[in-house]
Amino acid sequence: MTATRMELRTDVAEKRVLDLAESVYRHAALNNAFYDLWQSTELPADQVETVARNFYAQVSPTVNRLALVFLRMSPDDLVARAETIENLNDEMGGGDPKKVHTVLLKSFFSALVSRIRGRQVDFDDIDPTVLPATQRLVDEGAKLFGHENVKVGCGALLAQEWHAYAQLVRLYEGARNYMHHFALEEFHEHCEFFYLHIGATEKEHKLHAVSSSAALCRTEEDLAALEQGFTGYLDLLAGFWNELADAVSAEPRP
Predict the structure, then answer these.
(1) pLDDT tens figures, 81-129
(2) pLDDT in tens, 198-238
(3) N or C end: fewer C-beta atoms under 10 angstroms in the chain?
(4) What is the rounded distance in angstroms from the CA atom of residue 198 to the CA atom of residue 81?
(5) What is residue 4's three-state secondary structure?
């Protein structure tokens, strides 16, 4: 005889999802050598270019990841679908091509590398080669976000959003090591990518990721699938940051 699956109360599901989300602060995706290095010192141009290329490569598919999850959601999952669309809209600059988040990120790195090198450098001129862990994050991450079980995809999305806010705070703090290359107000003008994310937008995305996930989790099996996606994506991120730390640490300093 098959046991009946007990349905979770909404408040219980929300608490369990929030607890899972907050575990990101204990994971190597946020506690790693790269963040320590980036925040502690100013790196030379070659190393900054390595950071720029690999970080952009792992961030640029964000819209595709969101779309993969959205396409797996049932038309009846109104809360999850609506919040995911709002997230997509934010990433796409609210319909303004100049404000698309990847455009702002390219602009920041172009300005930063140009100032360090003392000449104009366009982002697209940076060596396009990415590290194996970066490509693995992109490829395996897409599989998690597009998993046939939407709870796995939502778990990966939960990991992405809760990692993203803390990630960008750390990256911004490290970017401040390079302030002396700019006039004061000029530096902050180039940091719009960071300010969008460490302001209201990313905070809202964190909350939406919890409510969207909780709305889909009605059983212990659902929560287990959510955790599979969450942990799987954080592990990929941890591998990415650790390999990036090794790469920039191994490059010679001037």
Answers:
(1) 888 898 899 999 989 999 999 999 999 999 999 999 999 999 999 999 9
(2) 876 667 778 888 988 888 888 999 999 999 999 999 999 99
(3) N
(4) 23
(5) coil
- What is d(CA 130, CA 1) in angstroms, rounded to the nearest whole number? 53
SS3 199: coil
Contact yes or no for 150/72 (Cβ under 8 A): yes
Residues 145, 156: Cα–Cα separation, whole Å? 6
Six token digits for residue 217: 């989790």
Q: Please check whether residue 163 is in contact with residue 197, taking contact to mean a CB–CB distance below 8 angstroms.
A: no
Yes or no: say if 159 and 229 are a contact pair by the CB < 8 Å rule.
yes
For residues 112-141, one letter each, b for 16 or more C-beta atoms within 10 angstroms of the residue's C-beta and e for the rest, the string is bbbbbeeeebebeebeeebbebbebbbebb
The angle subtended at Cα 55 by Cα 154 and Cα 231, nearest 5°, is 30
DSSP string, 128-161: ----HHHHHHHHHHHHHHT-SSHHHHHHHHHHHH
Q: Are 61 and 86 a contacting pair, CB within 8 Å?
A: no
